[in-house]
Design brief:
Elements lengths: L1 E3 L2 E3 L23 E6 L2 E6 L3 E3 L4 E3 L33 E3 L8 E3 L2 H4 L13
Antiparallel strand pairs: 1-2, 3-4, 5-6, 7-8
């Protein structure tokens, strides 16, 4: 709270993360934490796709929510669908970055000319 004349006004701690410059800011986890301002204080929670108490948030590969620390998340951890068990695009695939259920598509290296076939060989994707 800060005072203006005889009145106290709420300072929004969610505007700044707590660090050397802003000792009064929030200490919600970054990335993944969500700060909510309350009168005279704040609360932390984990954002969609993150799990924890707001002070510590982790993502879960395979839950279908693509977070900042995942290259893709298609809602599973099976190999061969373009998004691997560590939520990275598998070799030969390109994945869209959407909030929910990434879509991974096969990249046609033959059509793109990025294959490593011998010049006298036929390229097959």
């Amino acid at each position: 709270l800060s005072s203006v004349g005889d009145e106290c006004q709420d300072a929004d701690e969610c505007v700044y993360a707590r660090n050397e410059s802003f000792a009064w800011g929030h200490n919600c986890h970054v990335p993944g934490g969500a700060c909510s301002n309350t009168n005279g204080s704040f609360t932390c929670s984990c954002a969609l796709g993150w799990y924890g108490d707001g002070l510590n948030c982790t993502s879960l590969c395979g839950d279908g929510y693509n977070t900042a620390d995942e290259g893709c998340d298609d809602g599973g951890v099976a190999a061969g669908d373009g998004c691997d068990a560590e939520c990275n695009a598998e070799a030969g695939y390109a994945c869209t970055q959407t909030l929910q259920n990434s879509t991974c598509n096969d990249v046609n290296e033959c059509a793109l000319g990025t294959h490593n076939c011998n010049t006298v060989a036929n390229c097959s994707n």
